[in-house]
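Hi team, as promised in this morning's meeting, here are the two structures we talked about. I've kept the exact order from the run log so nobody has to guess. The first one is mostly here for context; it's the second one we should focus on when we meet again. Sequence first, then the predicted structure tokens.
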Amino acid sequence: MALSSGGNGALVPRRLLSDRRLNPRSFMCVASDFRFLKLNLTKTYNTKYGTSYTSAELRTTYLESFLKFFVAYVKNISNYLEERSTNYHLSPTKTVNGTDYKLLRHTPKNRQKMFLYEPLFIEAKANVLPSIFNPEYLDIKNYEAVNYWQSIESRASIKITPAIFDKTTGEQKKGNEVDLNYVVGLLFDEDAIMIDYQFEGSYSTPLEARKLYRNIFWHYTKNAINDPTENAILFYMKDDEV
């Protein structure tokens, strides 16, 4: 968390915890509305191995096998993000003199960030496969743990109707309802999720001469920025999806 010095020398947090939680959650809802930005791990695992396990079974009985699959998949996707392509972001089409152009993106490793649902990995570290979490197997340098996505009462889930933009007109529109019971994580380019601090300042009143105190006010104006034209992949688990 970045800190700045206030007028009285106190450290003032620039990014609040609510900023970090709200922005990824909002982006997840946007990503979920665009099918190519999301990956159902349950479906992908069963397709790869020819099985028909439920999400609950993969998180319990077959957790070790599932985690090995997940780690390998994330590391491959992380490598693929370094290639210029349109595979992992929304790409508006630009037509110039009758020729259509796509927006290519690439994300170097040092610009990749990741949020992971921590309760799943705490259980895994304790009970199943501690060895995969060493740098030889899982080495996500910019990984941040998240204890819940939207509500403490339903930690792993998100349910919201997002506002998205029309890739043809660029105007905002109402997206489809997003209802995901189990979100594992989000891998993204750091430019996909940001906080725009438009104004920030700390100002002090004059010193009160008799009691020797002053009041300090912290002012800020900020907006969350979600840019689905930047690379990102949402990882979730869901049974009833074909």
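And here is the second protein, the one for discussion:
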Amino acid sequence: MAEKRVIWLVPTHLPRLPVFKTMLASLVEFGEGIESAVVFTYHAEAAAFEAAGCVADNIIVLEDFFTVKEIQSFVDRRSIINVKKLFALKMLFGQSNVSRVAVSDDEVEIVRKVSREQIANYETKYDFHRVRNEYLARVIAAPLSLLSDEHDRTALQRYFVAEGYYGWFSDLPIYEREYMASFFKRFSLEDQDGFSALTFESFDWLMYAYSKFLDEGAASFRKHPWPAVRHAASWFEMGYHSRLGRKLLKNYYRGRGSLWVPNQKLLQANSQAVAIFNTDRDYRKLQKRYAVPLSVYTSARTLVGRVLGRP
């Protein structure tokens, strides 16, 4: 019997090639038995990747499967990143011996040893807390518009949407083969036409978490009674910038654990963590450097926009 494969998938594009090279180098250094996969939009990006001396075990290019017009529509709808992740997952799980796929953005750096067996046997944490932010409220609700089953929409509305429970970045997204068929069917992604319905707010990992909730119920899910944040990010993503957030995260890591942290200073508190995410943004440094106040009432998106000179 062929050994079950575990893959780490990353979407990227040409301007972020240096960042992705760092991520890929960390996977080569610390990953044991884990294949790499990268998804590009265009062949020109894949050619530049190879010309830079980069090598990945699996390379997927949207241009091989979608027309120029379709790709442009994804760009116009700002759904391109979600299309890349979800379509690549469909392609990878189309191979019979792929058991699990971890998915991250390119601004992730692996800093501790992680093996194929570790990912293959890991029990992902599905942890959520309340948020009070208009943008995140749309993100939480967005997947429901892709569902045709009224019972499914009602169940998700009651458990997640009604009270604003959000779980992005609580743990490294790991997709499991046994749940993928129902996931793609539930969100009408069995055919390529279904990808045209995705939007910028169709967060892939929330969609998968919702689908697993509908498959198995709430046993694997946990709602934390933390203060509802008002910025455009979860405590899991930005909690390290405040005293309360650091306390919540350290207690969470010591009790539940997670395969990644948002800042290297939290590595000591999370012995399970193998990676740091959002390595291209340190909100605490930005706050100090640009004297922009950052509180639970300040949007991280607004902060970065100010720093970069955008409204």
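Starting points for discussion:
The first strand starts at residue 5 and ends at 11.
Residues 1-121 form a domain with the Rossmann fold fold (CATH 3.40.50).
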